[in-house]
Write a structure and sequence with these properties.
With 306 residues, this protein is an alpha/beta fold. The protein has a domain at 245-286. It has helices at 56-65, 79-91, 125-133, 168-177, 195-200, 205-208, 218-228, 245-260, 262-270, 277-280, and strands at 13-18, 22-25, 28-34, 38-42, 48-51, 97-101, 117-121, 137-140, 153-159, 179-190, 214-215, 230-238, 297-304. α8 (245-260) crosses α9 (262-270). The structure holds zinc ion.
Length: 306
Amino acid sequence: MKPPCICCCSDKIECVGTIQPVVSFAGRFLDKPLAGGELFRCRDCGVAFRHPHPGKSVLDELYRQGNSNNWQTAHSDRQDWQIAGRWIEQYLKPESAILDVGCFDGGFLKTIALTHRRFGIEIHEAAGKKAQEHGIQIIGKDFEDMAGVDETFDAVTSFDVIEHSQNPLEFLRHMAALTNNEGIVILSSGNSEALSWRFMGARYWYCTIGEHLSFICPTWCAWAGNQLGLELKQVITFCHVKPSWKQRVGDLVKNLFYKISPRGFAALRQKGMGGDEFRAHKEMLSHPPSWMSAKDHFICIFKKMR
Ligand SMILES: [Zn+2]
């Protein structure tokens, strides 16, 4: 049975297809794979989501058991960080308060001017400590701690975190509640409207990642902004890597082949293509190839209206 939309409760829900079983979670291979669920897309608000998925207590335990080395320090030349840095310069005064939700070791906050007061929410203790060493004040662990924060900020940012939430509208609502009037909210995530994703449907690499539960897009951001008193000012699509032509062609060919013949693709993997981990974890044989060279992420900025 089709579930109602997780954001707008509409019943105009389309089933995109079945997501492959979850073989690993937070950097650890699972003893027993989890069902991947189905990918649904809402025709009213534009959100896409995995359903069903494990409940919060199971997810919390899976994160707890995860490999703490899974979340690597990102390169400071991340495109979304550079764009966000420019927006902060453009919209904020030099001594503003900025909160980064899921700040990890402070990677993004370290790239912005030291005149700003910098705050973070981070679940990984060791990463949070590293952030503190750089003068970043950690004010919460889980992104659900946003609900308990009393202060407000001139900017609230979050990079590649919202897809881990069960309800992206609630996530953005909390970000908005922590933002001063006329302050800004900056959000980045995978773009479920990207051409590569539309082409591959539920067999797109991004939704095969077990930690990813909900998938937003620019259409959803415009809708959600309207609900929450946030004016969507700008959207920029980007790719997390700077791909060579060879990589672009390679990714396209692999995904095309997989789309036409998932079994043929799995057979090549069984023969050793892609490395030994596919043979060691049988369910991975049927997983889609990644498409890292696709322009399948986006970053957007909202201004909180009075
Ligand atoms: Zn909806």
